[in-house]
Amino acid sequence: MQTTIIQQALVKQGIDPEADLRAGTHLVQLFQQAVEQFGPSPAVTSLGHTLSYQQLGELAQRFAAYLQLHTDLQPGDRIAIQLPNLIQYPVVLYGALMAGLVVVNTNPLYSGRELEHQLNDSGAKAIVVLANVANTLQQVVANTRINYVVVTELADLHPWLQRYGINLGAKYLKGMVPSLSLPNSMKLRTALNMADASRYQPMPINSEQVAMLQYTGGTTGVAKGAMLSHRNLVSNVFQSMAMFSSYGFESQQETMVAPLPLYHIYSFTTGMLMLVSGNHSVLIPDPRNTKALIEAMRRYPMTTFCGINTLFVSLCNNPAMQSVDFSRLKMTLSGGMALTADAAQQWQRVTGIEVYQGYGLTETSPVVTVNPGKGNQIDSIGLAVPHTQIKLVDDSGNEVAQGERGELCVKGPQVMEGYWQRPEATAEVMDSDGFFATGDIAILKADGYLKIVDRKKDMIVVSGFNVYPNELEDVMSEHPQVVECAAVGVADEKSGEAVKMFVVVSEPVAVEDLQQFCKERMTGYKVPRHFEFRDELPKSAVGKILRRELR
Questions:
Q1: CB-neighbour burial class of residue 1 (10 A; exposed 0-12, middle 13-18, buried 19+)
Q2: Do 137 and 436 meet the contact criterion of CB atoms below 8 Å apart?
Q3: Collapsing DSSP states into helix, strand and coil, what is residue 273?
Q4: Among 454-463, 471-480, 514-523, where is mean pLDDT lowest?
């Protein structure tokens, strides 16, 4: 019943619920088709240098040849990629896939403990790492099964003059590259130069094979590797493409400035979508460098932008945004965390373009829902993408009635194969019918749109009443002095739990004023009892506010 309502809503928006998902196709086929079709067109840019599709294809094939000819890595072996948004990333990614390897996306900001866990859990035998962060690998590599270390510097794939200028400046002027002692390591440029691309042997790849181990954030426990197959990822690219068409998204016409890291599944999949459609991605190595991000927006007039709530707030509060030309911008997407109405309104005031909120998870490759171009609802995560079944269930696993709260469960070709070497953890979230339990509480509205109330674990119970942090944060963020905020539950003798609000403000404001602001906008038991002012809130590498740390 719930899926039928959503399919009808897709049709109403002009979106085909049975869109072609290229069944049986794998990522390498999509990549090679794009290289052949869009050869001279710009594919990816970072730090001022652009690779065309043809150049990207040639470099990826050389890296694949290196893996085949100069290592003993076999199809199915895991290779970790620990890189920020540089043009080296797609070269290494597609080269590894062409050699039949399984990619393990690895956060460059990981601590030694986190890195060691991921390398050992995945069983990775090789890693490609940025020199700037390789000292962390140096500390733990002896405790792992890594046999091959390939090190790259920021501008390794730039023309020689730019390369020396950027790399030497980063190392000797800015002190960004530590001294390293990694036995048996090799420079990426050396690996590419020693490889004979003509000797690359195409590998038989089945679309059901695992292409990637994408580790969950680990904010709720030990990080687990979601096994994403070629089918999962290809399906989600074309599921998303069907929705993007409603924004006027076209082949070879779009430029996306991409500040969100490609090692995160949200940016990874949008990056693949850009590549498959012959479009141009401008990669931003450090999304926290707002000055460089805004400069890239000026230099490369964008038509497409993908962000998260905290990034929209940060950009809109920067006066330099007034100098950016947004006349070509046609599509702005929000994911990764809840989009507040205030952030959406700020972005629209600054750019003239609406923000379209979507929803997804690592385990769903990631896109589950998104708002369509001609039917945007700011308070909703939108409609389920084509070929996706949805059900909302109560604590006993029974489907709830339309309009009632229930845990959102998802079934579709984008849902992971399971957690790597964790059958028990997989069984906890996947039922016998193939539905994945997201852990998020949602409501299905009569028009087919879904609204997330909150995650089950974040729910606060005040005197027996359920309080959902997203709702409180949405209200609090409307206060003119509040830059960002996060609500958590704290122990309370009278009510069991009480709401505590952490806030970052643009200028001093009295707690009494904030409480009064909330009292005017929400039921009494929802009003935060405690406030704490912070200079900043703890966030994951991709900008999600970490409520767990605040607790």
A1: exposed
A2: no
A3: helix
A4: 454-463
